[in-house]
Amino acid sequence: MSDSVLDLAPVVPVVVVPDAADAVPLARALVAGGLPAIEVTLRTPAALDAIRAIGAAVPDAVVGAGTVITPGHVEDAVAAGARFLVSPGWTDVLLDAMRRSGVPYLPGVSTTSEVVALLERGVREMKFFPAAAAGGTAYLKSLAGPLPQARFCPTGGIGPASAPEYLALPNVGCVGGSWMVPADAVAARDWARIERLAREAAALSAGGRCR
């Protein structure tokens, strides 16, 4: 795996798994559609079991944990086999835990001061969240000039229409989103639909940018 989460794929599916039994067919559909990096959010009791199942049964998937907000989450996610970590925000305590984990991580930011503080700590790759609500592409464009060393995975309010605009920015490596894993498709176990949506997402290279 690349040391950079941002270079795995143009789009990282942000997945909520209510039932761990669905994790493997869901991951297989996403990988078949061309999205190998899968962020399983720690928002359900099934999340850690889902990460374990995907890691064991879907070798082409790079499964990570999202909504990581405590050192306990870091430990549990890595023990379950998470290969990267994503947080919606960060503190020094959480950042230290992610750094000690030994796996790539994306701490979340939504302000310039947070970006500068992470750069000061040697972190150059971050999640920009909630992207749409925090200023979207206009905000990220504004950061590119004074802070060109920071790279982002914007997540939050991004869909197939807006993703290309984000991907065209020089300081965006990938975007995160859940539009290719709609809750009704997961509930219906419509893996063919999810694979089709994943394939469409994987084809996004926004504004002529090649992946």
Automatic annotation (TrEMBL):
It catalyses: 2-dehydro-3-deoxy-6-phospho-D-gluconate = D-glyceraldehyde 3-phosphate + pyruvate. Pathway: Carbohydrate acid metabolism; 2-dehydro-3-deoxy-D-gluconate degradation; D-glyceraldehyde 3-phosphate and pyruvate from 2-dehydro-3-deoxy-D-gluconate: step 2/2. CDD domains: KDPG_aldolase (cd00452). InterPro entries: Aldlse_KDPG_KHG (IPR000887), Aldolase_TIM (IPR013785), KDPG/KHG_AS_1 (IPR031337), KDPG/KHG_AS_2 (IPR031338). Pfam families: Aldolase. GO terms for molecular function: (R,S)-4-hydroxy-2-oxoglutarate aldolase activity; 2-dehydro-3-deoxy-phosphogluconate aldolase activity. Keywords: Carbohydrate metabolism, Lyase, Schiff base. Its EC number is 4.1.2.14. Homotrimer. PANTHER family: 2-DEHYDRO-3-DEOXY-6-PHOSPHOGALACTONATE ALDOLASE-RELATED, 2-KETO-3-DEOXY-6-PHOSPHOGLUCONATE ALDOLASE. Belongs to the KHG/KDPG aldolase family. This is 2-dehydro-3-deoxy-phosphogluconate aldolase.
